[in-house]
Amino acid sequence: MQNDRQPKPPSPIKFEARQPEAGTALLFFISGGSLALAREVFHPAHDWQRADLSSAQLARDLPYGRCTDFATALSVPAPGRPQAIHLAMVVRDEGDDRLYLSLSNPAADLAWSAAPLWLACPFDGVPAVAATPAPRLAITRVQLGDASDRPFIVVDAIVDPNGALPRRARYCVDTSVDGVRPRWIEHKLPVSDAGIRAACLGRCRGGWDVDGLYLAGEDSKAAAGEEETQLLYAPLYNPFDPMQPRWSRRLEIPGKAAAEAIAACRHADNTADLYVAAAGALHYFSAANQNDGAQALTLVAAPEFAGVDTLFASARRGRVTVWGLSRTGQVICTSAPQVYVADPAAWSRPAVALSNVDAIAPCPDGDEADDAFFAHTAGGLIKVTRSPGNNLWISYSIVLPLRA
After folding, report:
1. Residue 361 C-beta-side C-alpha neighbours within 13 Å
2. Which residues pair with 75 in a beta bridge?
3. How far separated are the first and last CA of the chain, in Å rounded?
4. How sure is the predictor about 389, in pLDDT bands with cuts at 50, 70 and 90?
5. What would the pLDDT profile of 221-255 be if each residue is shown by its tens digit?
6. Is the peptide bond before 44 cis (omega within 30 degrees of 0)?
7. How far apart are CA 216 and CA 240, in angstroms?
């Protein structure tokens, strides 16, 4: 007897959600070694439409390559600048990782998703040596900035991972030279990269149109042989002379607590506030309060923030929302009017929206922009929203199309 029921497609564990000002929710994920996009549609019925973003490019360049990681960014809304979607994908081919970028795609018109333009970014971060092949690369993370003036790209990698001396390094990928062959510029830090547990892109007030990295972790004191907690802001390059050393700024949490998770919230002028989960509380650095030695303002002290190791922050329609995912799988949400984010009394009491969660991707949803997110649980992929009338959390399962 023939069974006509279609098999249920597997839910992605890594996924990113973006919500343009004009349009519906977008989900990016990896499926079968390809980077895919699913767009939420409501007419003629509520469903998801899928596009394959990478297979055509890989068939041309690397027929045996597979997409193993990716990053996305949606530029912050700014006067006179349409929102853009930036994409990065990591392709593994014969044990070597390659980086591809697709930048400045219109967020309001997704026609480009049928055939994205990808820019190959060959690794050139190590000077070439005669008669020596270029070192292999194992890319561990890619970050894309959401500034409206230009995309900033940061890549964490292990150089020559199978060699005698593998080395961890971080690079800023510069696409501004000729748009044809991007440059990999090493971003060295004043602390050991091995101790960094969290990083995100943002920009301090007075950053001279250059993004920087917020970095949280520990650094070993050579003299005392003990761990020192670190929270730094490090520009990607010196804005006055890119060839000169950068400065870095140390940020302080009350009680010298260790930052467990961090998230930057971008403004229309491309500066960013920094939110930090530490010692069972949510702390705040405004874009103007990120000088060396700056002290955080404690916004919310609540047991829900104990053990949070993933943090998200976004501003939309006059309200800032911060989401946390704890090591025990709880999703925490708190928010405040954007004009009163520096007033601890303006923040809502942290609410546990969901438990037993593996991963989340917050996504503003229509007029109720604050309270919507996607989550992966043991039962698969779901979307969760909060009813504005009674504050109840409502969820429904998502079944993504098997193919475009």
Report:
1. 21
2. none
3. 28
4. low
5. 544 445 567 899 999 988 777 666 678 899 999 99
6. yes
7. 26
Q: Which is more confidently placed, 193 or 239?
A: 239
Tell me: pLDDT of 5 over 50: no
Q: Which residues of 315-324 are buried (b: 16+ CB within 10 A; e: fewer)?
A: beeebbbbbb
d(CA 65, CA 8): 26
- Phi, psi for 110 (deg, rounded to 5): -90, 20
Q: Which of 250, 213, 249 is nearest to 228 (CA)?
A: 250
**Closest listed residue to residue 60, CA positions, set 1, 18, 100:** 100
Task: Compute the Cα dihedral for 37, 360, 370, 253 and give only its sign.
Answer: negative
- Whether the CA torsion 353, 354, 355, 361 is positive or negative: it is negative
| Contacts of range 320-328, beta carbons closer than 8 Å, 24 or more positions apart | 320/265, 320/273, 321/362, 321/370, 321/371, 322/263, 322/275, 322/282, 323/360, 323/362, 323/373, 324/261, 324/277, 324/282, 324/350, 325/357, 325/359, 325/360, 328/355
- Which pair of structure tokens corresponds to residue 105? 């795609």
pTM for this prediction? 0.91
Distances (CA, A) of 130 to 127, 133, 134: 10, 8, 10
Task: Output Rg (C-alpha) for the chain, integer angstroms.
Answer: 21
Q: Where are the alpha helices (DSSP H) in 11-121?
A: 55-61
Q: Give the C-alpha separation, 348 to 344, whole Å.
A: 9
Mean of all residue pLDDT scores within the chain: 87
Confidence of residue 42 (pLDDT cuts 50, 70, 90): confident
Bridge partners of 285?
274
Number of residues written out for the chain: 404
Tokens at residue 133, please? 């092949």
- DSSP string of 110-141, one letter each residue: GGGGGS---EEE----S---TT-PPPPEEEEE
